[in-house]
Each structure stands twice: as C-alpha cells, then as structure tokens.
Amino acid sequence: MADKSGLERSFEQTLFGSRWLMAPMYLGLVVSLGMLTIVFCRELLYYAPQVLSMTADKAILVVLTLIDLTLAANLLVIVLFSGYENFVSKLDIDDGGDRPSWMGTVDFGGLKMKLIASIVAISAIHLLKQFMEIGKNGSPVQEVELKWMVVIHMVFVASGVLMAAMDWMTARSAKKY
Q: How confident is the model at residue 62, as a pLDDT?
C-alpha cells in the first residue's frame, strides 16, 4: 500500500509540475505583444504624415485599424496574465499600486467571456471597415465575401450569447446545491 501511495504521490506531483510547460507559451505571447506593438507603431508612423491630406473616411479607417490592434493587444494581456495566474502560478510582484484591479480575479469563465467579447469587437471593427469601403473605387470586397463576413460575425455574437447563457445557468444551478 505504501508503494502505491508513493507512486501515486509522485505521479500527482509530476502532473502538477507539468503546468510549467505552459510558461514558454506565455513568453511567446509576450513576443506576440511586442509584434503587435511594432505593427501598431508602423501603422501610426505611416499614416501620421498623411493626416493633413487624409479624408474623414480614411482617418476613420486608420483609427479603426489602430483600435483593432489595441483590442488585440488588450486581449493578449488578459490571456497572458489571467492564463498564467489561473493555470501556472500566481504573479507575486511588487506592483507599487499599479496592478490592474481585474488581475487575480478573472477566473476561467471570466477569461472566456473577455475573450469572446474581444473577438466580437474585433470582428465588428473589421466588418465596419469593410462597410466603409463599399462603393469606393476598386472596392476589394465582393458582395458574397461581405455576406460571409456578416454571417461569421453573427456566429461570434451568437457564440458569445450562448457562452454567457451557459455560464449563467451553471452559476444558477450551483447556487441551488
């Protein structure tokens, strides 16, 4: 019996320690955040000199692109911090009072909801950008493509609503027991 208990304990410690295999993935997300920052800066530096000759529609498209990149970066930060704290280890850092209020409080369900909300927002921005291009010279989007983009966006919206409903039902049933 003692051998089985020792073997079982060793196995469980190995399983528990395996969470650290996720650490390189979170470092990869840090690199991805750096990549998004570079793309954001490149877009900003490209369009900033053109601001005086830019049409209002073009300015809105540029701003939407920058917002899109910012939302993607926000999503990365949320996944990075929440995922690390939920699945690997608590962040034990001296934040000097600068720690975001949501850190350490976003569980897997909250992370899931933030993820789908960000995806819906990013999808909506892409869709809005395409709608603004309709009727412009050499519009790159065909009618069929636009319809598929709307369908895909609506799938994201419906998925978000269904995920929220499932979380609500789960929380409601947990309160009964």
A: 92
